[in-house]
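Human: I hope this is not a bother. Would you mind checking the protein record under this note? Thank you for your patience.
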Amino acid sequence: MTNVISVDVSLESIPADSATTSTITATLADGSGPVTTSTNLTFTVTPAVGCELSSSTKATSTEDGTASITATASFPGNYTITVSEMDDPMVQNTATLQATPVYDISVAPTTTLIAPLGGSIELRATVLDFDTGVPVEGVTVDWSVEAGGLFIALSSTSSITNTDGFATITATGTNQGVLGTIVAKIKSRAVASCDVFFSAPTVPAVSILNADDDHTLDAAEIAFGVEAYIYDPNKGPYTGGDNITLYWGKGAQLVDSKQFPVDSTTQFPIPVDISELFKSECLQNGDYDVFYVFTDSIQNTHCSRDFTLTVNGVTPPSDLPAPTFPEANNNTINANVAAGGTMMRIRYAGMAAGDNLNINWQEYNANGDPVANSLYAPVAAVNERDHSLGFHDEPIPQEYITALKSSGTAQASYSVVRSDGSTQVSAIATVNVVLY
């Protein structure tokens, strides 16, 4: 009768730490029970790299027909263990072993995406326990340059995580402006990468309509439309496969990017409608870096000079409802009647005790000018009573209402800072204010 093999795995899942073992036990049997004649079995693993077996052959026991080896893993993945008779490979069976990651690693610049040639960019790897998400101290992170290595120098090829799970190095652009890809790796168990940019003095910066002189855009200029112009990077002649990628960064974060093909028919400067093609987050208040990278058909890169841009005066997008005024009549507050002030009611989904409210009230005269001494901007906290009622009433004191000496309007809004640190902004309520 033909023999059969059964395979048992003591631990079906182990961490890929090259230390934890799982015992693989094969039992050789025939129709009457275990085969008690010593028989050589062959153990193999697929894929062959990343999982290590203590032995590739083992003789079965003459007592119970079993043969056991151990397996460890150095790389996460699913592995198939195959056990067969050495003299009759058709007698075989398989089992699966899963190796799970030990660490979760991410890497990013800490302050900026782009630096001038000769400048440095700090890079930080964050290492967390894969299962618990807790920062891991004392882990060695190995660093390398995957792309741009001829022109980027690293301060070290390894660094060790601190109590926050951070390991840092710096990358410096040496003699050519490039896009570089920096890789952070923990042995073979976890890997992450990020891009950094070093500007080339010979590659011209972009031009941005209405911002070339002061490097600033306000709300009115943005409403008119924002257009960037990409000038000839002087790396021609251009062929099929060349491209230019325009990047819009904010601090160390990339907000958006778009790629444009370049060939012999390309007309410079290339106009790019930022308002239409890029995310709206690119035109919110803040400081930005705008630059492009020319990449040729064989993946050589050249990074332009940085165009620094400040956006201000833009009303942030709202994701919470505007406040209301229960005591207003036909959206009008009578300043004489509101001698004791008036209530501004704040109601939003998910209101929770402990939420912090940043409140804003400002009056404007008939010409639309801010009224002196009418700005009221307290900070309030949502309490249990507010949570139970589903709203928070904030009194606007009388003096901030009667600061308006004639008829006009008031604008009111709020932002919410939740316990997890996230912030949401309300729409703006406009209410009429009159004196009778």
The helical segments are 219-224, 274-277, 384-389, 398-401. The first strand starts at residue 4 and ends at 9. The CA atoms of residues 123 and 393 lie 46 Å apart. Residues 219-224 form the longest helix (6 residues).
